[in-house]
Amino acid sequence: MLITLVDPRKDRNSFAVANGDSKNKIISFPYSADSWADRTPLHEAACQGRLLQLRDLIAQGFHVDTLTMDRVSPLHEACLGGHYACAKFLLDKGANANVISTDGVTPLFNACSSGNAACARLILKSTASIHPYQLASPLHEAAKQGHKECLELLLSYGAHIDLELPVLGTPLYSACLTRATACVRTLLVLGADVRLGCGQDSPLHAAVRGGEVDIVDLLLDYGADGSWRNTEGKTPLDIAKPNSSVRSKLLTKGPCSLSQFCRLSVRRSLGRSRLHAASSLFLPHSVKAFLLYH
Length: 294
Prior knowledge:
294 residues; mainly alpha; Serine Threonine Protein Phosphatase 5, Tetratricopeptide repeat; Elongin C, Chain C, domain 1; 2 domains; 16 helices
């Protein structure tokens, strides 16, 4: 089944999760078409980054948290547009950083969707929750959009690196599907479990579908199991396109060397929360760099 998430406004929020080839299913977010019927001038000003107009409208009596029927706020709009000054002004005027639209979207999600780390940091400093609402996860959104800085920021605030959600899977799985190589590398370096994807579908399955050989190589270096079977009983090799570079990589990549096996064992023994401790071990610098993939 191919599940596609589509934003009615912007293609950049569309997302596909493949679990076979049988049927297609469409899920839309973050906004439904109805949310445009009752947009206010405040929403328009925030969306377009017009700070002076925002100031005037608030001074004229518009409430800072004016919502559409779908609970979309001006702060949602400012963050989706990546307009830091507008977002800061709204927050300074008391805007709710945790407001959730009827589709479960928060301003933080929108900031991560736009890739504006400054807006995301601003929202996080306003005690915004990093916990996702099913499909609208800021962490997954940053990962799949390839916004590495937002991803690192969320993780530094305690977001769960291996959080698996229905349809979306883990952040690593999301990044593999959309071929966001930098985010895949960041997640792996910071300790994401290469075995956790979306149900039985592994990140390696997702990377093979995406056709990005560099990501396949990365996953294999971090211990991905090329013989793992998904719910359809297929291995990554089974779903690789004939004569593709990805298929060639899967066929030619040999078993882990002893040194690589030791590196993976040490990293797993340390655990994600203690990976940083590897840099303080009484070991030669080259060995510590090896353990940390530096």
